[in-house]
Amino acid sequence: MSAPLATRVIPAFTSVGEHEWACLDHADNPFLTHAFLGGLESTGSIGPATGWQPHHVGVYAGDELQAFAPCYVKSHSHGEFVFDWAWADAYHRHGLRYYPKLLSGIPYSPVTGPRLLVRRDAAEPGSLRRKLVEAIVAECESGGHSSWHCNFVRDSDRAALDASALLRRRDWQFHWNNPGYRDFDDFLSALRSRKRKNIRRERRQVAAAGIEFACRTGKELSKDELDFVYRCYVGTFHAYGNHPALKPEFFRHLAEALDERFIVVLALRNDEPLAMALFLRGGERLYGRYWGCSEDVPGLH
Asked: What long-range pairs does 227-235 form, CB within 8 A, spacing at least 24?
């Protein structure tokens, strides 16, 4: 006889073991790896002092994890990439408290993926997702949170969310899909003449400046290169008036833990890096996240 289902609040992701996490369906999403979510907490990139307090919800059969929703108690709306400042202002103008609110999503990452994760071998995944939603709504109401927000959800989660009469918000996000280009020249041939010429001119500018490129995975990066990547990340955030929330320890942790799924393209001159772009890889998808440079070079962007 199977154990009855029960829900629990999980105040620290690091209490979830790697083996039980591996039993859940993450849709091969690098932002839902144990390394990513656990690393955010263990390196201090999120926590009560940052306005991202872990408050995850799990469904258990006995001591066996059946389903999980990454949840955070938020005291602000930074790092969500869904802009609800107008809602917060409306609450304030009517004498209501908008924060704290409850959020299901990936900190600092506007990436679509499962938010109601269930075991890969679940006989009734829809039932488990509904159980999660019911538990989160109850936690929201009993915990004094103004609202619950579930951001960048995957299609498989929507039925359970819609069944609870939650409001659906629609927005735009642009993705690039490769239709099967043979190489870069094949990609260029699909563009209009003016754009094709502009790209080729910029590439000649970069080559004339003595810039070469190298692609490194996590463990291939030297300490100095990884330090450069972090400095570029910080510099880009400061240039746009934003706060770089991620710690250098988080970058080092991800490079080691994700390895081939952690990809950095370096722009080099005389073997010295002067620009970088950082990606995470999940299956056949590349997620471009951070970029920056120590020197502006015409055409290098």
From this structure: 228/266, 228/273, 228/276, 228/294, 229/264, 229/276, 229/278, 229/290, 231/292, 231/294, 232/275, 232/276, 232/290, 232/291, 232/292, 232/293, 232/294, 233/278, 233/290, 233/292, 234/292, 235/292, 235/293, 235/294
What fold is seen in the domain 5-162? Aminopeptidase (3.40.630)
pLDDT in tens, 92-119: 999 999 999 999 999 999 999 999 999 9
> Do the Cβ atoms of 33 and 77 come closer than 8 Å?
no
pLDDT in tens, 40-75: 999 999 999 999 999 999 999 999 999 999 999 999
Per the CB < 8 A criterion, the answer to whether 6 and 48 are in contact is no
- Strand 56-61 vs strand 71-74: parallel, antiparallel, or unpaired? unpaired
Domain locations in the chain as residue ranges = 5-162, 184-293
* Average predicted confidence (pLDDT) for the chain: 96
Of 45, 37, 35, give the one whose Cα is nearest residue 256: 35
Q: Would you state the pLDDT for residue 2?
A: 72
Share of the chain above pLDDT 70, in %: 100
Same fold, 5-162 and 184-293: yes
Number of Cβ atoms within 10 Å of the Cβ of 259:
14
For 235-252, the pLDDT digits (tens) are: 999 999 999 999 999 999
Q: Which CATH superfamily is domain 184-293 in?
A: Gcn5-related N-acetyltransferase (GNAT) (3.40.630.30)
Helices first, then strands: H and E counts in the chain: 9, 12
Distances (CA, A) of 202 to 159, 214, 277: 47, 18, 17
